[in-house]
């Protein structure tokens, strides 16, 4: 009888196992040498889609108005006091004396050095130490009346004050950014130790990056070994064999070594999302190993030799593990439809890892198992293989309760599907970028005392040299700014208009009637040119307007807002701008707005990717199972786990962010593995004309042990991520664990009831 392709593959892998083992070791060592080149990219640009037209506008404004790396210290007094308290001012003085300890620190702007461009007076005219508390209280009243001071450094309740440090560090130098972050943290800790009665919080883009990178390194170095150890120990316990655990550990380590090394040679850097990919690859590699070992052990239990048992295992597993690898890779590759580079990288890394895990399952694992099979054959033939009794009882249970299981699972699926629209795609990005407790507290304090959310920057391009000096144009900018300030979701607005009006008042003996825009363009030009000679470094002229006076910047402090609210505000601003400035262009220069737009776009793209991956996975199953009917039928148990979990998510959480949508998108690639193995064994028996009930019992008996172990491994390994430092890992644990557990339950309980009702493909049946 002609041998099937699976049998030919099995014979080849066993016969050539020595050569294949040597090939695997050499390949892994070559690729593994690239690990030393592994890079981490924690910048926010690694997350941003490159196709957004706002990004070009952002880059244009960044080129015209280069931004330095800034650090913001926030000081808060004891409850019931103000920042005009000796303890707070002493802390700010200490910062002033020591801020140069931060690498590349250039300048400090603080309350004690404040100089008002409007009054042309300093707030503190002598050293802070010489003021009595009574004098400080008197200064407070004048400080709160200073519009620029309260808009930039001081909260209206005088319970929070900022101190801003500007650096000369290169934005593109990762090393310099890291040095700045480390210097800031050291200075912050020193100030806290010296001023225990003062709340001292600090924030900077470099701190967010440093926190993110440190969290990634901590998670990789602490969680990955723990995940591998837990997976191996579970398998050792289930199979009652330490040597099998060694084989799986070797398979997993070679897979990770090759995957990470190959990616390093390809020049890919890990980012805050793709850093999770190696952990997913570990779990997938372990799952592949378990299927081979399970049937190998069952064959040994029947008395076969190690060679025969391994040939049988590879022959029976070749089709399902190939299908599982293809469908899982499709699920993760669908993330390439997403325009975010970070999400694309995550999908690509896992897809590459799946290829290595599959390849080494055939080239490395059989040789290792046969080598260590002497210990594996010592099991007592009288002992039942792992889970056989429990799975047999489960098969009888599903047969007895066929109707109740089918209708209850179907009802649960329908109800949770109806709940899916309750999920909202709105969320607060601060929850993601500020996972570090100290940075989170900074945002909480600012929100509490200032009602201030994201800082937005816009550019108004006149396309005319000196166009921003036109009095009529500035009057329209003033009216536009007044309209903005009246919006409930905007806290404050600033532009060159404020500078011009202030200078005009100063030039006219501080008469309040002259706090307006002059009527003559030459007067405005002379004012601004004169301002350059005496300008404060805190308010430089060319931070407000371009050198040729064709472009001005508009600074908006919004109230605390969610992603969708930010998009709605931007849409409202765009509509009003087109109405007021039909001849000008509005440029968007806010990174947070770019992220909000990306999140909205990515949500749609991930849903499209999920639909495409579902279609491709279904086609793959049709081809792999050689049956259109069963390929389509297999979709049901693959869809329901995510449907049920996200339906319940709508009730208990109700908020979908792009990362949650990404997990939804890849879930089908993870859960399809169970269905593939059960259907492969089921169809092999059905094609021989055996009764469907016997086929169901056989499929569960053969594939069930491996599926149970892989689900247990996946669930335990993913559960460990709850203790991760990053919110991405934590959410992965909360969502993927219930999905894989429900997937196993549906495949062992619900799928048999579906097959009993809808398997009409085979007429002739032999009891």
Average pLDDT works out at 84
What's the overall geometry?
Answer: elongated
**Major beta-sheet overview:** 4 strands, antiparallel
Low-confidence stretches: none
**Overall helicity:** 55-70%
Across the major sheet, the strand order is: 2-3-1-4
Q: What is the CATH architecture annotation of the largest domain?
A: Up-down Bundle
Indicate the proportion of strand residues.
5-15%
Ends distance: 25 Å
According to CATH, what is the class of the largest domain? Mainly Alpha
Rg over C-alpha atoms, rounded to the nearest angstrom: 33 Å
Structural class: alpha+beta
Q: Helix count?
A: 28
Account of the 3D structure:
The chain has 767 residues and is an alpha+beta fold. The chain has 3 domains: 5-45 and 211-422 and 596-758, Up-down Bundle (Multidrug efflux transporter AcrB transmembrane fold); 70-203; 455-589, no CATH class. It contains 28 helices and 8 strands. It has helices spanning 5-15, 17-32, 53-64, 86-98, 133-145, 147-152, 174-194, 205-239, 242-265, 277-301, 306-333, 341-363, 365-371, 373-376, 388-400, 402-419, 430-433, 437-450, 471-485, 496-506, 521-534, 563-580, 591-625, 628-633, 635-652, 658-686, 692-719, 727-758, and strands at 70-76, 105-109, 161-167, 199-203, 455-461, 490-494, 551-558, 585-588. The strands form 2 sheets. Strands 2-3-1-4 form a 4-stranded antiparallel sheet, with helices on both faces. Strands 6-7-5-8 form a 4-stranded antiparallel sheet, sandwiched between helices. It is elongated. The mean pLDDT is 84.
């Amino acid at each position: 009888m002609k041998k099937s392709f699976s049998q030919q593959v099995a014979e080849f892998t066993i016969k050539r196992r020595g050569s294949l083992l040597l090939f695997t070791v050499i390949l892994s060592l070559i690729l593994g040498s690239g690990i030393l080149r592994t890079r981490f990219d924690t910048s926010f640009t690694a997350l941003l889609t490159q196709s957004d037209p706002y990004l070009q506008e952002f880059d244009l404004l960044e080129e015209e108005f280069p931004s330095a790396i800034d650090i913001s210290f926030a000081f808060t007094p004891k409850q019931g006091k103000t920042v005009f308290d000796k303890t707070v001012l002493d802390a700010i003085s200490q910062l002033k004396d020591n801020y140069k300890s931060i690498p590349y620190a250039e300048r400090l702007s603080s309350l004690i050095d404040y100089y008002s461009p409007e009054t042309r007076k300093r707030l503190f005219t002598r050293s802070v130490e010489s003021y009595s508390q009574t004098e400080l209280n008197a200064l407070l009243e004048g400080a709160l009346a200073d519009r620029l001071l309260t808009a930039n450094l001081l909260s209206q309740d005088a319970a929070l004050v900022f101190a801003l440090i500007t650096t000369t560090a290169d934005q593109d130098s990762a090393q310099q950014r890291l040095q700045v972050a480390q210097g800031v943290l050291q200075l912050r800790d020193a100030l806290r130790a010296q001023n225990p009665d003062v709340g001292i919080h600090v924030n900077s883009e470099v701190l967010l990056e440093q926190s993110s990178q440190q969290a990634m390194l901590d998670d990789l170095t602490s969680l990955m070994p723990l995940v591998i150890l837990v997976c191996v120990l579970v398998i050792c316990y289930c199979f009652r064999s330490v040597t099998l655990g060694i084989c799986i550990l070797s398979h997993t380590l070679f897979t990770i070594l090759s995957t990470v090394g190959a990616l390093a040679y390809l020049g890919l850097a890990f980012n805050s999302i793709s850093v999770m990919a190696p952990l997913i690859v570990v779990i997938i590699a372990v799952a592949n190993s378990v299927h081979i070992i399970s049937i190998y052990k069952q064959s040994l239990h029947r008395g076969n030799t190690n060679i025969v048992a391994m040939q049988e295992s590879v022959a029976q597993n070749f089709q399902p593990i190939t299908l599982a690898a293809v469908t899982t890779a499709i699920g993760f590759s669908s993330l390439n439809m997403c325009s975010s580079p970070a999400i694309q990288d995550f999908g690509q890394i896992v897809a590459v890892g799946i290829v290595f895990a599959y390849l080494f399952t055939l080239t490395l694992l059989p040789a290792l198992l046969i080598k260590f099979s002497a210990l594996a054959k010592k099991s007592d033939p009288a002992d039942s293989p792992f889970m056989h009794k429990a799975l047999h009882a489960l098969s009888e249970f599903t047969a007895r309760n066929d109707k109740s299981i089918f209708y209850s699972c179907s009802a649960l699926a329908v109800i949770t599907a109806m709940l899916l629209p309750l999920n909202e795609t709105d969320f607060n990005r601060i929850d993601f970028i500020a996972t570090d407790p100290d940075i989170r507290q900074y945002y909480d304090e600012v929100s509490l005392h200032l009602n201030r959310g994201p800082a937005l920057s816009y550019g108004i391009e006149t396309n005319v040299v000196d166009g921003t000096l036109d009095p009529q144009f500035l009057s329209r900018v003033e009216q536009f700014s007044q309209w903005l300030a009246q919006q409930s979701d905007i806290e404050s607005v600033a532009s060159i208009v404020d500078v011009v009006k202030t200078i005009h008042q100063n030039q006219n003996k501080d008469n309040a009637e002259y706090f307006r825009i002059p009527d003559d363009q030459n007067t405005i030009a002379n004012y601004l040119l004169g301002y350059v000679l005496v300008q404060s470094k805190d308010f430089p002229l060319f931070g407000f307007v371009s050198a040729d006076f064709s472009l001005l910047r508009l600074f908006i402090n919004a109230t605390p807002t969610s992603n969708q609210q930010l998009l709605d505000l931007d849409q409202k601003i765009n509509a009003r701008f087109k109405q007021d400035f039909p001849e000008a262009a509005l440029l968007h220069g806010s990174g947070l707005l770019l992220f909000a737009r990306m999140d909205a776009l990515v949500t749609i793209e991930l849903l499209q990717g999920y639909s495409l991956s579902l279609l491709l996975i279904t086609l793959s199953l049709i081809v792999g199972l050689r049956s259109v009917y069963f390929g389509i039928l297999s979709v049901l148990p693959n869809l329901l786990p995510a449907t049920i979990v996200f339906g319940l998510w709508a009730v208990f959480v109700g908020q979908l962010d792009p990362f949650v949508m990404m997990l939804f998108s890849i879930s089908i690639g993870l859960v399809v593995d169970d269905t593939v193995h059960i259907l492969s064994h089921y169809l092999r028996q059905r094609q021989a004309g055996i009764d469907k009930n016997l086929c169901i019992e056989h499929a569960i008996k053969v594939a069930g042990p491996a599926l149970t172990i892989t689900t247990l491994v996946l669930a335990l390994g993913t559960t460990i991520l709850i203790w991760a430092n990053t919110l991405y890992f934590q959410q992965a644990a909360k969502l993927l664990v219930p999905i894989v557990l429900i997937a196993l339950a549906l495949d062992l309980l619900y799928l048999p009831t579906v097959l009993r009702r809808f398997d009409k493909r085979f007429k002739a049946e032999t009891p």
